[in-house]
Design a protein that fits this description.
By secondary structure, this protein is α/β, with parallel strands linked by helices. The chain is built from 12 helices and 11 strands.
């Protein structure tokens, strides 16, 4: 490996023998350019410290010994993020200490900017949270064991707390997805273990509300659009409510469908407001998903049965090529809304 002695006049293109594609492919950062910086002028970010404790002494000693011989031109430069606060070093913190110890007059840097990916959660993150996740990403994908299980747990928990995000399964999956966890761990069981530690179903969440019967009844009573067993004064829809729980959601889905069929016979519309008994945002979100999925499964059963029976009776006749109209749960005169129960929700959310 070629090493050079860097002088105050050494240009950056003599310090490095790498191209953009040789560096990390950060999910939330885009490469801007190579350049050089004076070590004493570099500000190290305070963002990407997912570890609660960090043993750096041994690492720095090794790097001091290595860089004393010169800078290895095949090494990726120091990674610098250019954001609202100016430039921040977000990788190679130990290496920076080493080159300072060896009195390097200048060092090569790779400059990065934010990359917006079209995901509402990821694109709304603060620069600090992005650097936290990308600092973990580079440690998870560098071929070493720098990133350990606790790092993923701590980093994602830190980001959700600082961003005020609910610990739903979708949000945790989204954040973990950009940490390089799938490169670091090939075992899905380990990834699930990390996810479960982040969400911590056993501890009552502070990010949920309207979880008690009293709270739910009060919220419904204050709404003119929802009710328990009456008709809307706004549009005449039949109003119903249902409190969900994971053990009974299949049966509850049947209840909702039964109400929809009765409403169809009367040429009415029925509107349900559903809530959850769960005390964790992820479980509340799962109850919402389960009720709709169960309704679709129950509804599809007889529809598919009769569709197949009709097709069979058409075989060999002139009607064999007839295409039957599609019938879905969305064709039923029913609306299903979820009561606001997770931090950040201010109004009911339509599920169907």
């Amino acid at each position: 490996m070629k090493k050079i002695t860097i002088t105050p006049c050494t240009p950056w293109d003599q310090m490095i023998d790498v191209k953009e594609e040789d560096g990390p492919d950060y999910p939330l950062l885009k490469f801007n350019d190579f350049d050089y910086r004076i070590p004493s002028k570099i500000t190290t970010t305070s963002a990407n410290y997912p570890r609660k404790t960090e043993r750096s002494k041994g690492n720095v000693d090794v790097l001091i010994a290595s860089t004393r011989e010169g800078w290895a031109t095949k090494c990726w430069p120091f990674s610098v993020f250019l954001g609202k606060k100016g430039e921040e070093l977000f990788d190679h913190r130990h290496l920076l200490k080493a080159v300072k110890e060896n009195s390097y007059p200048r060092i090569p840097v790779a400059i990065y900017e934010r990359k917006y990916v079209g995901n509402l959660i990821l694109d709304s993150l603060s620069d600090n949270s992005v650097l936290t996740l990308m600092g973990l990403y580079v440690n998870a994908t560098d071929g070493t064991v720098n990133a350990v299980l606790d790092d993923f747990v701590n980093a994602v928990k830190l980001v959700t707390e600082e961003e005020g995000l609910a610990l739903t399964s979708d949000i945790v999956d989204t954040l973990l997805g950009v940490t390089g966890i799938n490169v670091r761990y090939s075992n899905q069981k380990t990834i699930n273990q990390i996810k479960n530690r982040i969400i911590d179903y056993k501890t009552k969440s502070t990010k949920v509300f309207n979880t008690t019967n009293e709270e739910q009844k009060e919220w419904i009573s204050e709404s003119s659009y929802f009710g328990t067993n009456n008709y809307s004064q706004e549009d005449g829809a039949g109003l119903r409510s249902k409190t969900l729980d994971s053990q009974n959601n299949h049966r509850y889905a049947g209840d909702l469908l039964s109400s929809a069929f009765k409403a169809r016979q009367k040429d009415e519309v029925v509107r349900y407001i559903v809530s959850s008994k769960a005390e964790h945002e992820n479980l509340i979100a799962k109850d919402r998903e389960d009720i709709i999925n169960n309704m679709k499964v129950i509804f599809a059963g007889p529809v598919d049965f009769f569709r197949n029976k009709i097709h069979k009776s058409f075989e060999g006749s002139i009607l064999e090529s007839v295409t039957l109209p599609e019938v879905t749960i969305e064709d039923l005169p029913i609306e299903v809304w979820a009561m606001p129960q997770i931090e950040g929700e201010e109004e009911a959310i339509q599920l169907l």
